[in-house]
Amino acid sequence: MFVIIGIVVVLGSVIGGYLLEHGNIHLLFQPVELLIIGGAAVGAFLVSSPSKVVGIVMKNATRVFSAKGASKGEFLEILGVLSAIFTKMRKEGLIAIENDIENPGESPIFTKYPGVLKNHHVVGFMCDNLKVIISANVSSFELENIMELEMETHHHEAMIPSHSVSKVADGLPALGIVAAVLGVVLTMAKISEPPEVLGHSIGAALVGTFLGVLLSYGFVGPIGTHLEHIANEDMVPLQVVKIALVSFVGGAAPQIAVEYARRVIPSGAKPGFTELEEAMRK
Question: pLDDT tens digit string along 135-169?
Fold first, then answer.
């Protein structure tokens, strides 16, 4: 919603200010300039990106309109799963959770928390590291190093859309100049025309520079920044799981390990201590 509002504000401010100065709106409508700038930008992106990167960017580009950070309820579900798993491990032994982490979709623990099951990255991250815990006598230090490396790899891949879109945004002003230069070339071919024809042609050429800068700083660049925020927010649930698992392996009681994990949740979505206690009782 805010992305759409931002687009409307950018267009309204730029075009509205132009109209208030009695500008001719028809002069700004230059589809050929858009074709040159947009086509060149897409082509440059395809030249600079392997097929895997193109696929990742196309898959994630629309997330700016739909992605939301994890809510308080979703974090409570993650903490609830961790608490239930830790309690079962403490009471029945490590091997007791084997079926739960092998088939989380059929696990009595995971099925109580459908919000967690929807987040495949969190479920995979949690189950993979629990398998390491029950199959090897791994120390908390070793486990933390392994998880940090996995999270770093995941974050690097998640940042690919942001970096790619931002690089396209960086090149748009220059491509706008390319379009403007082509317009000047066409204008020079009309040098014998009357001044009003030349003025219109030069104005149309300068629209290329205007469009390149506007697209870069008004739309494509902000989209790249938005994708970066999304990638960073996606890391928070993994960080919560990491803190809980490392604390539990380090000897913390289930309730304490879950409380340590609660502490790293951002303030806007962090459940209170009492809220967590009540959720665990339920």
Answer: 888 888 999 999 999 999 999 999 999 999 999 99
Q: Are 41 and 172 in contact (CB under 8 A)?
A: yes
Long-range contacts of 253-262 (CB under 8 A, 24+ apart): 253/90, 254/83, 254/86, 254/87, 254/90, 255/83, 255/280, 257/82, 257/86, 258/79, 258/82, 258/83, 258/86, 261/78, 261/79, 261/82, 262/75, 262/79
Cα Rg of the chain, angstroms? 27
Name residue 218's amino acid.
Answer: G
User: Cα-flanking dihedrals φ and ψ of residue 268, to 5°?
Assistant: -65, -25
Rounded CA separation 109/81 (Å): 7
pLDDT tens sequence across 197-228: 788 788 888 888 999 999 999 999 999 999 99
CA 110/CA 93 separation, integer angstroms: 18
Residue 199 one-letter amino acid: G
- Predicted TM-score (pTM) of the model is 0.86
What span, in angstroms and rounded, lies between the C-alpha atoms of 224 and 22?
33
